[in-house]
Structure formats: structure tokens, C-alpha cells
Amino acid sequence: MIDYSDLIQPDKGQEAHAIHLVDKQSYDEWLKGRSARERAHLAATLYKPDAFAHVILPGDDAERWSVVTAVADADNLSAWCLAKLAQSLPEGRYRLEGRQPGKALFGWMSAQYHFDAYRTKTETRVPRVLLTAEVGAIAPMVAEMRAVALVRDLVNTPAADMGPPRIEAEAERIAKAHGATLTVTKGEALQQDYPMIHAVGRAAAKHHAPRLIEIVWGKEDHPRVALVGKGISFDSGGLDIKPAAGMRLMKKDMGGAAHVLALAELAMAAGLPIRLHCLVAAAENAISADAFRPGDVLKSRKGLTVEIGNTDAEGRLVLGDALARAGEGTPELIIDFATLTGAARVALGPDLPALYANDDALAAELMAFGTERDDPVWRMPLWEGYADLLETDIADLGNAGSSAFAGSITAALFLKRFVPEGTDWAHFDTFAWRPSAKPGRPKGGAALGLRAAWAALQARYDRRGRNRAAD
């Protein structure tokens, strides 16, 4: 397993290969300052300063070579601008020539992530180490990378090995590591207290029984923050069964749970001054004689009754009960993550989580920090005009819209019914998956929106960070 703290290290003047950053605007001027040998080498390799293009430059002896690589903007480095190098350079130590890497430290580590748990033969991995004089940035960057790696690992793990008990075990590990309190509700208590979570998961095998997992941490007099995650370990669609193509990636349907567990661990490890309540609704949406049915009416923890229009709209059901429980603690902020709707992916594609929020300032913070951290999110409207699409003849609301239109919005409006009035709330409808690889971002499980949410929490609650900024 990679120790990410080995991949970025303090720069103490140790021997290292130089990385020269250029862009299309600066390349010609930079080239004028290179040696005749280097210019000849670049000409011979037909080097062009296109995105991620790099070449090794010969030095005065065999060990003193350097690297030139092209970035989009040499004066404004992105998190991913060095990721291709971190995947392809020889083993060794490197430093940027004439500047510090800043947030590119994250991409350097991210590029060296691998998920090999199920391979009988694995490639030999060689560490590429990046030096930085920004010593204070190392620990926070490593913490964020570990959180992202946790999300990737959990989402990449097959459903047979990542059922509700395994999600609970991960929550238990985190709670124990940080002195938090873990509470798990299942069986008859779940049926009584969280009837929608129970209904969704009751068709699964006993060893994958549904449960509500709660972690509580922090001082009671600190601001209360709730993190809520959808933990559907596998989604067959229930009796409204998915086609084979739609079911193929449904091991990732616990991606919301993975995000909030990673976010909770970040907050606890950093000692964020909050009273944290992390809730994961874990269930498998399976098919058996006991599966819940279209047309059933479920009572929720909040007391609202819900008519089932589609058993494949189960994520909002388990989240509804978990959000109701979160609201009972009167938090000032609730953030939930869920792989909730295909409609969000149709609208925004795989890279952009759909963000819904009932507070403009909160939404603006999350959007801004997403841009700053190169973890973008896109705000969608909580358009109350579509609330009538959730109306039903015999219950308080339906779990599926009466129209194919605005599927992601109606799902968010459903969740909003379970959020207490006056509580700031943000909902991330995230994909938690990359269908194709990009530098630093491998195909497979993905943390999308996690770093944006973490930055927003830090900005709101980390007094030490604000004090440092003021100084």
C-alpha cells in the first residue's frame, strides 16, 4: 500500500532532477536560455509545448538530467498539471525549477494511486518523489489524498465484499481511530425507527442486512454538523429491475457513504471544532419474495407517508430516514452525498456533481472552493415549481416523479421534505466514478465533490485557519 507521505517531502536541498514548466506563451523565451545541446535534443525529439507533453533533457553527466513539461498556464498551476509526470517518470526525486508546486502536490500523489486488491500479479510500483519548500502544505495534502484514496478503494471493491457489514466495519475503524462513538441500528429496531431504510434492504440476504450507521464526535458545545451518505451496497433496481447494462456499475451505489466517511475522517483527524454527526444508511436493494413493491406505501421516520412509484428510486428513501434523524440533532449544517440519479449524469456528465442547496451563500462557497481545489461542482435549482410531480393520490408524496422531466431536481425536492426548516443543507448528486482515465484520475471509483466540501467546512469552522489567514 502506498504511503502518500513518502511521495511529497520537504525540500532540504537534496539531489533531485529539475522539472522545467513551460506553456505555449513562455516556451520560446525559455528555449533561448537553454544550452545548445538541450535545444538540439528538443529539436530532434520534435518537442511541442502541448498539454502534458514532456521530454527528458540530457545533463552534463548521466545522472544530471532534467525534465521539461508543458502546462496550460505556467503562472497558475492546476492540481493535475504534473500528474502525467508522476505516472511516467523514472523512480527518483524531483523539484520544480524556480517555483513551488502548490496544489499540484495533490495531483502528483493522486497519479500514483492504484487499486490492485484483486490482481494475482501486480506491477512493480516505483515511487516518484516531489520536493517542496511549502512544508506546511504537506500534511494537509496527504490527508486529502488519503481521503480520496479511501473513497476510491471503497467504491472499487465489489459488492460481494462491500455489503452493509463491511461499510459498518469501515465506520468502526474510523470511529475507533479518533475516539468517536459508533451506533448501529438494525433488525427490529431498524424496522420500527427507520422504516424506509428497512424496507429497501429487507429483501437482501441476512448477512447483508440493512442498517443505519452513526458516528458522533466532538465537543457538545461546538457547532453541530451532520454528514449523510447513501450506502446502497448494490442496486439491482428491486422489482423494477435494472437492465444488465444499468446494473454493471452498481457496486458504486454506496459512493455517497464512501464520501461522507472520508469527509468525517478528514474532519476528525484535523481536529475541526465541530460536533460531528455522520450517518450512513446502508442497504442492498435486492430482489426476493420480501422485496418492497411498486404501489406500496411506506411510513418514514419523519411520519410522512411515501407511495412507491419505482423501487429503483430507493436511494432517496434511505436518505429520507437518515436526514430526518440528522435533523433531530438540530445541526446548523447538513451535507449529504449520494449517487442518486441518472438524470444528473445526463445533464452534467460524469465529472460534475450536481449541487443542490437551500442557501445561496452555502452554494456559492461550495462552488468557489470546488474551483479553487480543482474539484468542480455545479449548482442546480431546487425549483419548487416541480414539487407537484411528487404528488400522489393516496400518500403524502411519491418517491418517483410523475414525469420523466427534471429527475435530479425532483429527487432533491424529495430529500428537502426531510430537512428541518432553518437548517442549511447541501445535497451532492455525485457519480463517484470515472468512466475513463485522465492524468491523476484513474478509471474507476472517484471522489467528486469531496475536496470542495472539505474546503468549505474548513473555511466555516477552522478558527485556526482563519487566524493564520488574518496574520
CATH topology of the largest domain, by name, is Aminopeptidase
Radius of gyration: 24 Å
List low-pLDDT spans: 465-471
Mean of all residue-level pLDDT scores: 95
What is the annotated CATH architecture of the largest domain?
Answer: 3-Layer(aba) Sandwich
Tell me, what is the CATH class of the largest domain? Answer: Alpha Beta
Distance between the termini: 39 Å
The neighbouring-strand order within the major sheet is 7-8-10-9-13-17-14-15
Principal-axis shape equals elongated
InterPro entries: Leucine_aapep/pepB (IPR011356), Macro_dom-like (IPR043472), Peptidase_M17_C (IPR000819), Peptidase_M17_N_1 (IPR048816)
Family: Belongs to the peptidase M17 family.
GO molecular function, one term: manganese ion binding
Keywords: Aminopeptidase, Hydrolase, Manganese, Protease
List keywords for this structure.
471 residues; alpha/beta; Leucine Aminopeptidase, subunit E, domain 1; Aminopeptidase; eight-stranded mixed beta sheet; six-stranded mixed beta sheet; 16 helices; 20% strand; elongated
